[in-house]
Amino acid sequence: MSSYWLKTPNIIKKNQFKQKQIFKIRYIACKSTGEFSMAKEIFLIRHAHAEDMQRDTKDIDRVLTDDGCQDAMRMGKLLAKNGHIPDLILSSVAERARETTKYFCEQLGTELEKVVFAEDLYESSVRLLLGTICKTPDQYHKIYLVAHNPSISFLAESLTGEVIGNMAPGAVVYLESDITSWQEVSQNSFHMRQFFDPINL
Q: Among 11, 53, 167, 199, who pairs with 46 as Cys (CB 3.0-4.6 Å)?
C-alpha cells in the first residue's frame, strides 16, 4: 500500500485528513476487487519555461528555452518513473505547450495520437478549463492538462480547495477524485496527491 499512497505535500490542511482516509478506504476496497478504473486522476501541468516575448514574435509562437526543454524532459521522466502514464493528454495550442507535451510524451512513451490540442486551453480561464475537462469521455481515467498561468494555478486551487500558489513553469499538480464521470468535476471535488516542481528536483 505504501507504494500507492505516495507522500502528499506539506500544504495539505489538517481538515483534509478525513478525505484522505476516504481515499485510503476506497483504495483497499478497489484492491480487493481489482476495480481501480473508477477513480479519476488529472495532472495539471504548466508549460515549461519559454523565451521572452519578442517584437517580431506572437505570444502563441513563443518556444521553450534550453532550460525549459530540459525541465520538460526531467518532469516527463519523473512521471514515467512513478508509473503515471496518461490515457489522454489535453494541451494548449501554444507552441510552448506543444513542445512541453512533446517532451513529456517522449519520456512517457506516449503516442501523439493520445494528444488533443485545444484552442480553449490557450489564453484560457478556469471556466474554460473546467469545460474542457467536463467534455472528456469517461473511458479515460488518467488525463494530463497542459496549459498556462494564471488559469492553471487557479484551477488547481479551485478543484482542491488548497492554497497552492503560483505554479512554476514545468510544475505538475497530481489530483485524484472518486467521481465516476468527468461531468461531475466541480469545485473541491479533487484531492491533491502530489506536487512536482522542477525547481526542487
A: 167
